[in-house]
Amino acid sequence: MVEKGSSPAWAWFDGRLTAFSDARVPIEDRGLQFGESLYEVVAVVGGEPFRLPDHVERMMAGARELGIESGVPDLSKWKAVVAQLYRREPHRTAVLYAQLTGGAAPRRHLPPERPKPLFVAYLRQYTFPMPSETARGVAAVTYPDTRWQRRDLKTTMLLPAVIAKKAALAHGAEEAILIGQDGFLNEGASSTVFAVRDRVVTTPPTTQRVLPGVSTKAVQSICDQLGIEFAFRPLTLTDLHKSGELFVASTTILLMPIVRLDGTPVGTGAPGSTTLQLAYHFQRNFWGQPGP
Question: Both 51 and 158 in a single domain?
């Protein structure tokens, strides 16, 4: 689960392929100065992006909210960008980082003329978790959610997530699970959280407080195929501790069991049977093997 090597050699920057070192964002870019910026991270295996339409749809939905939808390439263009980057840097496994900003304009909250949005993307070599890592699971800690209220928008305002990740690392954990002031679970600092109890997989409903996860769609689809009940409903910290199994999912960690929460074993302290079954089929789908 690590990035490899040095910086990418190439980037797609403002409509063309350019050397990564020459891809410079202007100082008055609205993403830099106002946080008017969205991003997506897409897994790419052998040059093929995983669930790319879901990522494009999510960026477009966020861009409409910010009024910068004209800068989102259509799906065919995304595929062409990935193909061009892959031809230059043919990593067997990589992540595509794509970012859309409000463009550059003299610094005003509302510029008199809407600048042209800026779209950038690049491939970075990445090693995804293998089944042996999934079989071990990881630890997580709970942490107060201090982010803004529109978490359904995948913006680059990630400082609260960075702070939460630091807290997790300080406690020997790999992920921070963010709990709102009302006591309800929102999501992980960089993942979606799922609880399993009596073979029912549950995750918080998608509202303005929770990002609509691409990996959530993948998990729900596998549950449907396997006949495992899947439900969206609010979860409290007590629900998490009473669940026999917990797991998180994201583009970079795929599906990963949580075996310790706040220093306490989850269930038996080992990945549960339902989680391992889902993880097995998630891995098969991810690596391009036939599904269940």
Answer: no
pTM for the model:
0.94
Q: Domain containing 116: what range?
A: 2-127
- Shared domain for 247 and 114, answered yes or no, is no
DSSP-derived letter for residue 189 is S
Report, as residue numbers or ranges, the catalytic residues.
Answer: 154
Domain boundary (104, 127, 150) is at: 127
Report how far residue 174's alpha carbon sits from residue 261's, in angstroms, rounded to the nearest whole number. 11
Residues 249 and 149 placed together within one structural domain of the fold: yes
**137 and 281 together in one domain:** yes
Tell me the per-residue pLDDT of 254-289, one tens digit each, with 9 for 90 and over: 999 999 999 999 999 999 999 999 999 999 999 985
Q: How far apart are CA 116 and CA 105, in angstroms?
A: 9
Cα radius of gyration (the chain): 19
Please choose, from the candidates 49, 41, 101, 96, the residue with its C-alpha nearest in 3D space to the C-alpha of residue 71: 101
